[in-house]
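Internal tracking record. Fields below are filled automatically when a chain is submitted to the structure queue. Please do not edit lines marked as system-generated. If the sequence contains nonstandard residues, flag them in the REMARKS field before resubmitting.
Queue: standard
Priority: normal
Entity type: single polypeptide chain
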Amino acid sequence: MSAQLKDLTRMNQPSPARSGMVKVSYGVHNLEAAIAGKSVSEVRQSLKEPLNIDPRARALVNSRDVAASYILKQGDQLEFVRLAGEKGRDRRGWRFSP
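SYSTEM-GENERATED OUTPUT FOLLOWS
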C-alpha cells in the first residue's frame, strides 16, 4: 500500500464528529478519509491507482456534478462514476454509435 493511501485512509478512534472526514467511492471501492480541504483533483490524483479510477469518470459530491477545483468539506460524499450505458471511444476519439 502506498504511503499516500496510508495517509489518506489512516483512521483514528471512532467518534461522532471526526474532523475532516469525507467518504469516497468508485465502483465497489469505498473509504472514509480525512481529506476535507483538498480539491477533487488532488483526491483523484492520489487515489487513481489504488481505486483504479477511470480518468473519464465524473466527480459527484453529495450527488451533484462538481468541477475538479471543488474543495471538499467535512461530511461530503465524493463519488467517481461512469454513466450507465456510456460507450467507449475508438482510437480517433469518435464515440461508438448504438
